[in-house]
Amino acid sequence: MKGVQIGEGLKLALYVGFFLLFVACTPGLPPHAEYSQYRSFPTTNLDSCPEGRKDGLSDPDIIFKGKIKGPKSFASYNGKLYTGVLNGYVVRIDDVSLVPVVKFGTSCDQRWEDPKCGRPLDMKFDKDGALYVCARIQWNIQSRRRNRRSGNIYWTHYSTVFELIDLLYTNYADPSGRFMLYNATSGDNQVLIRGIAANGVALSEDGESALIADTLSSRILKYTIKGTKAGSHEDFAIDLPGQPLNILPDGRGRYLVTLMRLPRIVSMAWYSPCLRRMFSRLVYLAETPLRWLDSNFFISYLRRLLHFVRNFEGISRHMPKIAVVLTIDREGKIIDTVCNFDLGSPFADYLSRVLMKQAFPQLAD
Ligand SMILES: *[C@@H]1O[C@H](CO)[C@@H](O)[C@H](O)[C@H]1NC(C)=O
């Protein structure tokens, strides 16, 4: 009797093993992306805030709870703050209300069709008060920075293979994002760096270099715009204690960098291209009946489920809730870290606010 049981168990394990091997190794299965690169995981990891900086982002005011979804970046002009949200709007944050300023994409239900909504990702005012917004409308475009002296725009996209909604696939595949220049003279876009998970961009004050957050490699790259090294790039800050998203000059020659932390289910498979490919394919396989049903019948419940699986929101619930802002000097050295270990999510439905003199006393005047 016992022998039979072990036999059955072994058989099942063999079947599962063969199935996984088939999924991992058969050439040409979707999703179609590269899974070749060995990817190193940062050795430093922030498990708690450095001593003395624990209260940097603690006890924030939580405002507009339930009225806002997925604010990613801010811009300010004339003392007013602006941000972009998941339903495609850029809003101005007044004392008691959010005032719509501009809408990207088309009308949509943000709960399950945000590819239609448009997604303002990063924005900046120029000195004349014109707002430049980088938004994903049909494809995965991310931040833009305008170089005021020349009118050129430096911008990034995170992936050239997957749509923004497919963050799970994007984060498993080899990075395919790029750092780009929109050349105002010629009207063309040029690729400056390719094969990175490019996120935020910041120009140096003298306009001679640009910093690019390479999210999945936990590093910041420096691209030289002028001088003898023009056109080349190098590591600026490596082995950051998380994945960098936005970079903001602090107006005093340093930079503020926001970090997130990827969920374990993504970082677990980090070292092995084969595992990353297998996980992506398994998720794709599981999604296939949902996709088929969705394209043939409209069932709102199914569409929401598919959306939930695709856009990382399901997984992001298990993401470490951390909000970290680093201050980095001109040489790329971390000089300060403030954090909060109970807040922080790309799908947050609130804004949090702390006083400048609490988080960055040196910047509060
Ligand atoms: C922009 O295009 C012009 C005309 O093609 C070219 O002369 C110039 O070098 C380009 N600028 C940059 C920064 O590549």
TrEMBL record:
<protein>
    <submittedName>
        <fullName>Uncharacterized protein</fullName>
    </submittedName>
</protein>
